[in-house]
């Protein structure tokens, strides 16, 4: 299995949905898109074995993949869509308050450069209720960054470690994220990212504002932040039209392409595996 299939516990979520339980997920026959992107669904620079299936979130991503020469592609929807199907109603929506804010983050190979103090001031000026700041594990582990947000009076959390090279993946990363999103009325970030679409699908009002910051050696192949702002202007700003945002998120997450457990097992190469028995 390509190690990116484990990121954020995606393979674990899909295994649970298909009835294969909470253990180590079987090998997936293909590459599962591991985050929202504006290219062909695969992260730039990731090794790719020719003719291996690409299992993508949305029809528009499939079209982009086709346009750059990828032919063995299928739309299955985002793993988050399957988590929503397994957890449709918890916790009650009346408990929502405040904003969960996701500052744009780096990762093992690329760091983010930007002014967190200015971003904090803008958040304080814009958000009407209590703010939870969710830092990626990379920034959460940097005391200087974490303390800036803590000293501003924000609740600071981390959903967990996404995993890398099959090690230390938190299989409940997305579960933790969904729980937090459903606690909040708003979801916001300084870039349009997966977290914003997840938040919309989980019932939050979205916002994208502030300095998008700079990712070291960011790959410009598909147009970067400039293209994102041009193509999705209706999702940028401290307040956006919610019905429009819901419709866009539905398309980008492929919520209407979610497979049945049997269909998904077939696409993932799990058709002949035994389901775990369900307790009465």
Number of domains: 2
**Count of separate DSSP helical elements:** 11
**Per CATH, which architecture of the largest domain?**
3-Layer(aba) Sandwich
Mean pLDDT: 89
How many distinct beta strands? 10
Main sheet record: 5 strands, parallel
The CATH topology assignment of the largest domain is Rossmann fold
Shape: globular
Structural class: alpha/beta
Question: What labels would you give this structure?
Answer:
alpha/beta, Rossmann fold, 2 domains, 3-stranded parallel β-sheet, 11 helices
Plain-language structure description:
This protein has 280 residues and is of the alpha/beta class. It folds into two domains: 3-87 and 254-268, no CATH class; 93-253, 3-Layer(aba) Sandwich (Rossmann fold), CATH 3.40.50. 34% of the residues lie in helices and 11% in strands. The protein is built from eleven helices and ten strands. The strands form three sheets. The chain has a five-stranded parallel sheet with strand order 7-6-4-8-9, sandwiched between helices. A three-stranded parallel sheet has the order 1-2-3, with helices on one face. The radius of gyration is 18 Å and the shape is globular.
Blueprint of the fold:
Blueprint (H helix, E strand, L loop, with lengths): L9 H8 L13 E2 L21 E3 L2 H9 L5 E3 L3 H8 L12 E4 L9 E2 L2 H11 L4 E4 L2 H4 L2 H9 L3 E3 L15 H9 L4 E4 L4 H8 L3 E4 L5 E2 L8 H8 L10 H12 L7 H8 L12
Parallel strand pairs: 1-2, 2-3, 4-6, 4-8, 6-7, 8-9
Antiparallel strand pairs: 5-10
Helix pairs in contact: 1-3, 8-10
């Amino acid at each position: 299995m390509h190690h990116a299939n484990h990121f954020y516990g995606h393979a674990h979520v899909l295994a649970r949905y298909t009835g294969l339980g909470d253990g180590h997920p079987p090998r997936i026959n293909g590459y599962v898109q591991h985050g929202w992107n504006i290219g062909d669904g695969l992260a730039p620079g990731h090794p790719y074995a020719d003719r291996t299936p690409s299992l993508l979130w949305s029809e528009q991503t499939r079209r982009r993949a086709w346009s750059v020469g990828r032919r063995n592609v299928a739309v299955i929807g985002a793993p988050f869509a399957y988590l929503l199907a397994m957890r449709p109603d918890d916790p009650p929506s009346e408990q929502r308050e405040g904003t969960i804010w996701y500052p744009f983050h780096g990762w093992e190979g690329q760091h983010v450069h930007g002014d967190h103090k200015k971003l904090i001031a803008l958040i304080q000026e814009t958000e009407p209720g209590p703010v939870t700041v969710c830092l990626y594990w990379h920034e959460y582990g940097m005391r200087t960054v974490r303390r800036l947000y803590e000293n501003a009076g924000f609740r600071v959390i981390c959903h967990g470690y996404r995993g890398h090279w099959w090690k230390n993946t938190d299989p409940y990363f997305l579960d933790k994220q969904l729980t937090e999103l459903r606690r909040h009325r708003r979801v916001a970030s300084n870039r349009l990212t997966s977290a914003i679409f997840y938040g919309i699908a989980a019932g939050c009002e979205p916002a994208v504002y502030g300095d998008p910051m700079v990712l070291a050696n960011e790959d410009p192949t598909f147009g970067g932040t400039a293209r994102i702002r041009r193509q999705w202007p209706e999702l940028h700003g401290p307040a956006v039209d919610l019905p429009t945002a819901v419709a866009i998120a539905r398309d980008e997450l492929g919520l209407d392409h979610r497979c049945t457990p049997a269909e998904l097992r077939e696409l993932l190469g799990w058709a002949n595996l035994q389901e775990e028995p369900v307790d009465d």
